[in-house]
Amino acid sequence: MKTKLLSPAFIPALAALFAFAVTAQAADEVQTFELDGINQLKFSIAKSNVSIIGTDRSDIQLTLEKPFTGFDPEKVTQSVDRVGDTLVIEIEYEKSGKGWFWSSDNKGYSAANLIVPNELVASIRTSGGNVTAEAINAPLTLNTSGGNIRAADISGRLDIKTSGGNIQLRHITGDTDAHTSGGNISVEGLAGAASVHTSGGNINIEGQISSLKAHTSGGHINAHLQSQLIEPLVLKTSGGNVSATLDQGMTAPAELSTSGGSVSINLPRDQSFKIYAKSSGGHVSLDHGGSFNGSLSNKKIEGTVNGDGPLVKLSTHGGRVRISEI
């Protein structure tokens, strides 16, 4: 491995940082980083799976796993730098030059596993692997160019992006922004506001959600809000069904739309709201027991339920629209 050191402040600690296991080609490499005034981490690696786990430890432990074949330590370059209160670790693996794609001889580390203090602010990036995160109580950014992302038990703002994989989130406390260019998004037990987007998959999300924007270009959206909606709800898909259940009702507007499926919303019986619902190619129905005032037909409903309130706007070009009570 070629190690590039960018910060003179780290020189006295280098002997402790790079005590590598070298007894076998596939042996793990373990590095330890002391955190003297550091409270943020920026970590990037080429073409590897990455995991980050929060604990009560006061340092960072990085374990690098090698593949059993095709690994050349001379092609590895690692740099370690300190920028203010941020530790920056970058690991690159030199390509062989055999075209645009990596051949079987172009194997970097198979995985990088980080064990960190659970209050550490972290940003994780890999150019071609899966990312997992667990038990972090601080803002967290996860980014991969071609893999799945899973995160659980995160307290703090969560920003996620993958160019070609699924996103699975569980027990997230904090505002969340999740984007994938080609996979499904599943969120269980979210507390906070969320913005989720996929270009080609389904979205399923539930929790104590105060605000939600969800968009997919080719899948279904199913949202279950267990707390009161206090900021706008926007659910849009170009080719699937859209459904939302609001257990505690709403004080903000909701807009649900699809170009090629059905739309439904479930609200408490005592919820007051304005309603505008329209279908170009299906049936529109109001199955809510509240007091309705307005115009109603098989294709369009416009009016109020239980008096004035936030607007509920539902539309589809090729399916059914239904408003019902919980």
Task: Summarize this structure as a short list of keywords or feature phrases.
elongated; 326 residues; mainly beta; 28-stranded mixed sheet
Short description:
The protein is mainly β.
Describe what you observe in this structure.
The chain has one helix at 14-17; strands at residues 2-5, 29-34, 40-45, 49-55, 59-65, 76-83, 86-93, 111-117, 121-126, 131-136, 140-144, 149-155, 158-162, 167-173, 176-180, 185-198, 203-216, 221-225, 233-237, 242-246, 254-258, 263-267, 273-279, 284-287, 292-296, 300-305, 311-316, 321-325. With 326 residues, it is mostly beta strands. A hairpin with a 3-residue loop joins strand 25 (292-296) and strand 26 (300-305). The longest helix is centred in the first third of the chain and has 4 residues, at 14-17. It is elongated. The N and C termini lie far apart (61 Å). The model is unreliable at 5-25 and 99-104 (pLDDT under 50).
Strand and helix map with partners:
Elements: E1 2-5, H1 14-17, E2 29-34, E3 40-45, E4 49-55, E5 59-65, E6 76-83, E7 86-93, E8 111-117, E9 121-126, E10 131-136, E11 140-144, E12 149-155, E13 158-162, E14 167-173, E15 176-180, E16 185-198, E17 203-216, E18 221-225, E19 233-237, E20 242-246, E21 254-258, E22 263-267, E23 273-279, E24 284-287, E25 292-296, E26 300-305, E27 311-316, E28 321-325
Parallel strand pairs: 1-6, 3-7, 3-9, 4-8, 4-10, 9-11, 10-12, 11-13, 12-14, 13-15, 14-16, 15-16, 16-17, 17-18, 17-19, 18-20, 19-21, 20-22, 21-27, 22-28, 23-27, 24-28
Antiparallel strand pairs: 2-5, 5-8, 6-7, 23-26, 25-26
